[in-house]
């Protein structure tokens, strides 16, 4: 009798599924979600809009009107096209699959976003992690040396980085892009609403750069929509490995509607940036806490004991992310998503149970 152990790849058998804890009854500050909902009137209009969607039809594979709206609202340069993904996670996967020639490598600074490594592994690409400096800035010399040594097919630069929140220095980024003349550089701007700095306006200025965005951190994590901006020569190739109906009709319709009201989401992001400043200040005042500068909607904080902090907050019904085991540079670090003012007050109260 056949068993999964006979059939499934050995590396897959050895894996565990991506862990998502059940957050029912908790204040959820572990996944960089926007804590605010849509204003009720807008939500009602959205409901009416979605009620008109033809659920019996397959989605448009390349919804031109939506793509044009993204280009206009987000300021995509004229020489660039847009490819949609079921979240940017799927775009990372498409890039991996399309670039997975035998022996091809993927390179990214570490600690970084786990999906770069995960997706490379699933596509049988070798992953090269280059440690950041201890202050989480880019170790540019190490990056340049690794690029020369490995000639990676793909280099990921998260701008700003997760889980550190670091907005890499533009001159360092430029040196890496210039050195990567045998690579594609994917600049991941998942946190652009909180960074307010972007490479998107320059996406057509380089032949080896594409810029990846998502609406997830802007407040629409549930609809799963990411997009890749780049020269058509690149996007045409990635489009070939895109599952034909990867973004569904409800996602497309919701995005189309909400992009007309993006000012609402932008205002929420602005409020979260203010909350980030307040939270960083409050946490920095707690004895034993070291707060790293963040351009995202989260803070990386080093505490005396990350496990104790995580467990204490869990008991206080606040869910955060203990990232201390992710990488040696993250020893005793936790990542705190910036929430609503009420949530942040509860978070600070929880932190004070340990740090006083
Ligand atoms: C959250 C996150 C993403 C994933 O976004 P989705 O569009 O929700 O898949 C991509 N990159 C980074 C760095 C992130 O933190």
TrEMBL record:
Residues 26-349 form the Aminotransferase class I/classII large domain. The modification N6-(pyridoxal phosphate)lysine is found at residue 217. It comes from the Bacteria. Its cofactor is pyridoxal 5'-phosphate. It catalyses: L-histidinol phosphate + 2-oxoglutarate = 3-(imidazol-4-yl)-2-oxopropyl phosphate + L-glutamate. Pathway: Amino-acid biosynthesis; L-histidine biosynthesis; L-histidine from 5-phospho-alpha-D-ribose 1-diphosphate: step 7/9. One of its GO terms (biological process) is L-histidine biosynthetic process. Keywords: Amino-acid biosynthesis, Aminotransferase, Coiled coil, Histidine biosynthesis, Pyridoxal phosphate, Transferase. Belongs to the class-II pyridoxal-phosphate-dependent aminotransferase family. Histidinol-phosphate aminotransferase subfamily. Homodimer. This is Histidinol-phosphate aminotransferase. It comes from Paraburkholderia sediminicola.
């Amino acid at each position: 009798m056949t068993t999964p152990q006979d059939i499934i790849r050995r590396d897959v058998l050895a894996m565990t599924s991506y862990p998502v804890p059940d957050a029912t009854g908790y204040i959820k500050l572990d996944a960089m979600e926007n804590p605010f909902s849509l204003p009720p009137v807008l939500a009602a209009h959205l409901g009416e809009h979605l009620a008109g969607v033809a659920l019996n039809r397959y989605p448009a594979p390349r919804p031109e009107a939506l793509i044009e709206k993204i280009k206009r609202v987000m300021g995509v340069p004229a020489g660039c096209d847009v490819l949609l993904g079921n979240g940017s996670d799927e775009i990372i996967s498409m890039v991996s699959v399309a670039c997975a020639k035998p022996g091809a490598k993927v390179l990214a600074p570490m600690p970084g976003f786990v999906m770069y490594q995960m997706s490379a592994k699933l596509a049988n690409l070798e992953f090269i992690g280059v440690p950041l400096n201890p202050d989480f800035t880019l170790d540019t010399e190490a990056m340049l040396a690794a690029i020369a040594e490995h000639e990676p097919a793909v280099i990921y630069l998260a701008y700003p980085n997760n889980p550190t929140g670091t907005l890499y220095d533009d001159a360092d980024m430029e040196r890496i892009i210039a050195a990567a003349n045998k690579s594609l550089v994917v600049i991941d701007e998942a946190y652009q609403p909180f960074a307010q700095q972007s490479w998107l306006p320059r996406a057509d200025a380089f032949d080896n750069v594409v810029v990846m965005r998502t609406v997830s951190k802007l407040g629409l994590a549930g609809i799963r929509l990411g997009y890749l901006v780049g020269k058509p020569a690149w996007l045409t190739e990635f489009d070939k490995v895109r599952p034909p109906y990867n973004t569904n009709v409800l996602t497309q319709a919701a995005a189309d509607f909400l992009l007309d009201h993006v000012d609402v989401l932008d205002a929420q992001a602005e409020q979260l940036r203010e909350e980030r400043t307040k939270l960083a200040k409050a946490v920095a005042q707690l004895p034993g806490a070291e707060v790293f500068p963040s351009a995202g909607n989260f803070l990386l904080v080093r505490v005396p004991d990350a496990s104790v902090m995580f467990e204490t907050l869990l008991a206080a019904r606040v869910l955060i992310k203990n990232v201390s085991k992710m990488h040696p540079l993250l020893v005793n670090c936790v990542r705190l998503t910036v929430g609503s003012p009420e949530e942040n007050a509860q978070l600070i109260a929880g932190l004070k149970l340990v740090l006083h």
